[in-house]
């Protein structure tokens, strides 16, 4: 092969390589990086905008449902989390602690003073459980502990209808019935706090569980509308009014906005009593002020 022929062959081969090289890279490298940067920036700004819209939506829900949240002492900032980092807000746990500490109300309190177990006058646990706080699981735990440590756990019979408050005489009768149970032991019931001292009876060991008030109310709303729970309530109380399909299909938010049911109305001075007010009753007692 001559020199000119070899040179011509190499030039053609180089031209073919260059053709394939530029065909595989249709865009300049900097253009690809710019497109990637724009995609990341758009995703970031879209996330920020969506988060802002979500916060504004929650604030608008509070404005549309003022009675629900104001009755529980919450504002739009507490729901949306804007003040989550503000530890000086008295409506937060840390803020309340700091307020009580600054005013001297916590000056003399210690862990030993807040523990009511050593102050009990009976070896008996009274779990007057608040509704929708995991009390069924707690009851099962007490039963397991009883079998392990040799004490009996008692539960009350569920009455068809229960009044929000008991009279002093009814409370005295309930306290006397509890005295018939042997020590050591445990008793579980959805009942208001009992002032055993007022009835000249020894104090048991009180325990209870609490839950975020709004989550508790929502849980109770859907719990009462569960088919099995609703059917059991009709078996206990056959005279209970039957509900239509709308009662079960209405969401909690829609029920609150429309004030469609008594358990969706959160007026502080309403005579109707439901799960949203039983925090006070279970921890306060049978006095009218507890309503």
From TrEMBL:
Gene Ontology MF terms: sulfotransferase activity
Which Pfam families is this protein grouped with?
A: Sulfotransfer_2
Q: Where in the cell is it found?
A: Golgi apparatus membrane
Keyword Glycoprotein appears in the UniProt entry: yes
Note the topology in the membrane: Single-pass type II membrane protein
Q: Which Gene3D superfamilies match?
A: P-loop containing nucleotide triphosphate hydrolases (3.40.50.300)
Which family does this protein fall into?
Belongs to the sulfotransferase 3 family.
Protein name in the entry = Heparan sulfate 2-O-sulfotransferase pipe isoform X6
